[in-house]
Structures are given as C-alpha cells and as structure tokens.
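Cross-check.
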Amino acid sequence: MSMMDKTLTASEQSALATNKVLRSTYTLLSMTLLFSALCAGIAVMIKMPPMGMIITLVGYFGLLFLTTKLRNSAWGLVSVFALTGFMGLTLGPIISMYLSIPNGEQIVMTAMGGTGVIFLGLSGYALTTRKDFSFLGGFLMVGILVAFLAGIASMFLSMPGLSLAVSAMFILLMSGLILYQTSAIIHGGETNYIMATVTLYISIYNLFLSLLQLLGAFGGDD
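Predicted model, tokenized:
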C-alpha cells in the first residue's frame, strides 16, 4: 500500500509540474503576444520601413540563440520579450503594406481572427484529447526546413506561385507544430516554459503571416 501511495504521489507531482509548465507557458505567451502587437502597432503608426531580410534573419536567429542560452535563468524572460518585440517590429511594415491595399483592413482582421481560431482550436484539441503528437517531430523539422528554403528561393526568383505554395505549407506545418508543442507540454516532453512559449509564438507569428499572404493574394485587387 505504501508503494502505491508513493507511486500515486509521484504521479500527482508529475501532473502538478505539467500543469505549472502549461499555466506558465500560456501566461507568458499571452504577455509576449500583447507586447509584440504593441510593437507592431507602434511600427505601423510611425510608418517604419521594412528592416530587410538580412537584418530580420540576423536579429531573429541571434535573439533566438540568446533566449535558448538563457532559458533557465531570469534573463531568459528578458530575451524572450526582446525576441517577440523585435518580431513585432518586423511585422509592422508588412501590416502597413496590406493596410494600403483595397480591403486591406478586412484582410488583416480576417488573418488575425483566423490565426486565433486555428490556435485555440488546435491547442484545445490537444489539451482535451491528450493525444501524443510526438510522432510529428521529424516530419515538422524536415518540412519547416524545406518550406524555409523554398520561401527564400521564391523571393530571389520572384515566383508568386511558389510563394503562395510556401504560405499554404507553413499554415499546415505551424498547425502541426502547435499540436506537437502542446502535446509535449502535456506529456512532459517540454519542461521549460520559456522555450515552449517561443515555439508557440513562432507558430502563431508564421501562421498569421501565411494567412495574411494568402488572403492578400486572393482577397485584394492586385
């Protein structure tokens, strides 16, 4: 009986630890999304010009590396806000561009709403069913790498069709990543809420951008 009690206690402790990571992740994610939206709004208001691909990539990967290195310290929180704030600033000029086209405001709002519905729906599904989506890990890693390289190729080769295909790929891949990361938190595969927040934030960011591009292509007049 005492052994069963110990097992139960260990199980309860594991459940409490998982719930703590989950709660901390969603709290931090909410705060970083608000901060990122604020930075994007400021960038739109001051009509900030695009940073350029090199600055964007260096800033993103640099801050991502820094956040990964500091993930187990209080400075990790500072770096995650720096990362999401920077990404918000890069988003501002893109939103400004879409707002300048016909039906631009409707396109941006639809993309935001669609992103919210997809994220809440998928994370809610993973939390409710408690299914293990760890099998998606290898597929997502390869898929994201291929889509990233295809996205860069579409910019250099000026191929709108490829660009739209990449956006559609990213919507599917980011949806899979949301399921994968939420599942990892539930099943104890991810115990660091800072890294879990970064993964979910990046999923939401890319999901919004991809929806924006597809809606802009099919919903605008250009």
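The helical segments are 2-45, 53-69, 75-99, 104-129, 137-157, 160-186, 193-219. Residues 16-219 form one domain. Passed to J.P. for a second look.
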